[in-house]
Amino acid sequence: MRIVCPFCGERELGEFTYLGDAKPARPAADAGEDAVFDYVYLRDNVAGAMSEHWYHSGGCRAWLKVTRNTLTHEISAVEPAAGAGAAKVGA
Amino acid sequence: MVGGPQTHRLSNGGLIDRSAPLSFRFDGKTYVGFQGDTLASALVANGVKLVGRSFKYHRPRGILTAGSEEPNALVELRSGARREPNTKATTAELYEGLEVASQNRWPSLRHDFMAVNQLFAPIFVAGFYYKTFMWPAKFWEAIYEPAIRRAAGLGRAAGVADPDHYDKAWAHCDVLIAGSGPAGLAAALAAGRSGARIILCEEDFALGGRLLADGGTIDGRPAAEWISRTLAELGSMPDVRIMTRTTLFGVYDGGTYGAIERVNDHLPSPPEHQVRQRLWRIVAKRCVVAAGSIERPIVFAGNDTPGVMMASAMRTYVTRYAATPGKRIALFTNNEDGWRTVEAALGAGLQVAAVIDARPDVSPAHRSLASKSGFTVLHGSVSSVEGGKDGVRKIAVLLTGGARAEVEADGLAVSGGWNPAVGLTSYHRGRPKWRDDIAAFVPDGAPPGMVAVGAANGAFGLGACLREGFEAGAAAASDAGRNGNAGAAPVAEDEAFSLTPLWRVAGKGKAFVDQQHDITASDVELAQREGFESVEHLKRYTTLGMATDQGKTSNIAGLAIMAAVSGKSIPETGTTIYRPPYVPIAIGAFAGHHRDEAFHATRLTPSHHWAAEQGAVFVDTGLWKRAQWYPRAGEKDWLESVTREVKSVRGGVGFCDVSTLGKIDVHGADAGAFLDRVYINTFSNLAVGKARYGLMLREDGLVYDDGTTSRLAEDHYFLTTTTAKAGPVMQHLEFCRQVLFPELDVQLTSVSDQWAQFSIAGPKTRDVLKEIVDPAEDLSNEGFPFMGARKVALRGGIRARLFRISFSGEMAFEISVPARYGEALVRNLMQAGKQFGVTPYGTEALGVMRVEKGHVAGPELNGTTTASDLGLGKMMSTKKDFIGRVMAGREALIAPDRQVVVGIKPTDKVRRLRSGAHIIPKGQTPGPDNDQGYVTSVCFSPTLDQWIGLGLVERGRERIGEIVRAHDPLRGEEYDVELCNPVFYDPDGGRQRG
Ligand SMILES: [Zn+2]
């Protein structure tokens, strides 16, 4: 598999570390235990396009949101995490 | 010349070099072949028919094919550490001095005692493993399995380490082409002329594919001329790489392909500094599969007799190698292509005994060839072959209409049609589709970027191969953005291909479907009767197609027979899933250079070379080599050395390289706020110039890592992690920064490799440091109090970071200098500290002192413990959110009966405490019901003069002073221990503050 890192270009799978589903968002501090439990443990078992977190560990250390088809491994989109790259101070 | 004449070698023709004789040994006997031979063709040229014994029945077997699909002619090549079992004689290149042994026979190939297995054939039927596994286990283990292991099998592994090197490499191209037959070369020509970067892989050592044996006319000239003209043109292009002896074996995601290059398998041993094989990962924008097709057998009784050979293989031996598999041969075919073998045999002056053609009609041209050449054409099928280890003697024919005939011949060529090599196109779980006109499966689509052409796509005519290859080559180049002028395609006629499907001829005697695994037609029928009708079940129940040849000559025949007995069509019956690798790949090739000391990278601490000079004993911790202790002359064991090191620190001063800790610079206006979110305790309120111990949780509430973090400036923290978690914590923090809290103004920089860090500990630490640090720096308790942290200048001007932190419990500092000064610092410490008796100490002494102080480390930070389990629950801030806060409050994680860290010491002061011993209440029987925890860390404490430890024990903190049992079934020990305060040494911490 090959992933096009927005910062480094097309690179081989071995440079990346997989985390998993990028959909769940970390609940607010006051969201309660159930919401956090869902965030930590509950995942959809997607057959098809899935948004996933990948880390360019062997490259620029950017966290990426990769849209991958779990049936074909085809990657349709790669975007950097909101805070990837230099900090956007004042942005 | 040694070894006598090559009795079955033609005096003219073939692509062999008669001026380069090569002698080789097969089962101890010397033979001679020529440069350009494979082992198989050299054996054929020497009249050797018996090459091996079969897997289960030890039946005599010969050479069936002339390629990588060979099921029978498997041999051991070379000897000693380079012995390589199960190698196909059909692909092994001959070289001077090649040593070959036949396999699976005892005492000799010709007199194989185990051939009696044939008499026990009924117990080896389909599913016999499953059936015999139902016998009493004892009988299986004691009698049956050892007997089978002796009787069944293939070659012998060398049994010692492979002395050769293997390489792994990457390559990139626009168009990757598999195969150098007419389709592959035409594709290369078109793509190359279009300007594409090309890699062409050919598993043979010669280029040309079937053209090498079958010839033909291309652009009005002999095929051989076209090959050399094409190779010359490709050779003149700048970006064409042609790799012979290279098999494309796998297709992976994103246009990545696996190929194995047999760089030096054709030499006795690889030349110095060269590899035997190279594993390629090729990234290609497009791939043209011109892998050809595989001729398939027809299943009949005795079809495994040596001398029965695929028709295309027989003519390959005759035309390419000028070696004759027989003097008087017969052909059994169901298609037009088989007749080319007759033409080749006649052309080489062989006698043709008869052609048995299963089709209703034979062309007038063939009829007149038969009458002109004096052989008969029999309409019908071969029902059985008579013969044995010396080859074919007689062929029984069942004529259309029911009459019987006999043919005397010493070789039988068989053609049941051709199966396109659909492996590569099906490796992404593709299922090939059935084509009735050629009675074969062809690719039905392919992985992205790949296309099959020529025979691999079911186009068997030479003209069609050239056309399809050329078009696909041009299209692939264009898809890759190369649009040069491809020029004119090569042109050739298409041969006729008429086929009447025939898979099996009924008859008496064993008729083999899978010759390598000894699976017969009746095994397939038995599987069907026993309900294993699906092809996937058939495969696993009978092991059909599961041998090293992956059923290249047998799978389709097996499923055709299954289709027939189950009353279904072949496409309804379907194929099994195709999986890489296409040919067996040596594990060594996958490992490449990553073996022995290069198995993984090795990280050396800045003081490593100095420590090695001191004779330090090193221990592997992850990738690191760390000094474990520094033995001195006269010390009888490690414990004596470690005890000395601990006493030196506690009573004087010592130092230890702690550079392996993960180190991260945290910069930015929000650095403090960021740390507040990732640690359970607060860092935003840490004063500049101060350090604080921090604990991180995972989001599920369990402890992740710990370490000391210092504030060096308003917007700059220096964070340390444990050695083991240096990488994972960096990744985790980057996730927090980039994904969870992108709004924070904070940047992370891994500086683990940039700083050499040493712990200097003991009451005389200041004395030593004063010799190192610039005299202007105030190191007094007031000027540099406990948990102080700041940048300092060293004597000579080098800038360092100094931290007054202590893992040992003594008055201690940690000092960081740029890594390149690490070794110099150590040497200076030794020199400056000499007058104070400074002692280097290793990880063992470090561990002893941390257990004495009750500090938790890896065995306690084990991924199952909470902050409270570690006795650090009070650190959890209630005034802020942090990673893991909510989940840490779950019922089970705050349950009062959790196992928590406690000190443990044997009541008998001379007893040795062992890690892993389980804790059982006194008077109770050990077992899961009474298990209350276990000992996590132990050491011999020189300070207390006894073995002590830490453990995770149920309600441990409430049970200080209780006597419990340590139960250690692994070592057969059980003894009383006392639960105690985990801080064994200086519990109020006066020493480290002093
Ligand atoms: Zn990157």
UniProtKB/TrEMBL annotation, chain A:
Annotated protein name in UniProt: Sarcosine oxidase subunit delta family protein
GO terms, biological process: tetrahydrofolate metabolic process
One Pfam family per UniProt: SoxD
One Gene Ontology MF term: sarcosine oxidase activity
From TrEMBL, chain B:
An example molecular function term from Gene Ontology annotations: sarcosine oxidase activity
Residue ranges of domain SoxA A3 in the record: 508-592
Keywords carried by this UniProt record: Oxidoreductase
Signal peptide span: none
Matches recorded under InterPro entries: 2Fe-2S-bd_N, FAD/NAD-bd_sf, GcvT/YgfZ/DmdA, GcvT/YgfZ_C, GcvT_C, GCVT_N, Sarcosine_oxidase_asu, SoxA_A3
Any matching Pfam family: Fer2_4
Domain Aminomethyltransferase C-terminal: 901-986
Cross-referenced Gene3D superfamilies: 2Fe-2S iron-sulphur cluster binding domain, sarcosine oxidase, alpha subunit, N-terminal domain, FAD/NAD(P)-binding domain, Probable tRNA modification gtpase trme, domain 1
Domain GCVT N-terminal stretches: 608-880
GO biological process, one term: tetrahydrofolate metabolic process
Top-level division of the source organism's lineage: Bacteria
Record-stated family: Belongs to the GcvT family.
Record NCBIfam families: soxA
Protein name: Sarcosine oxidase subunit alpha
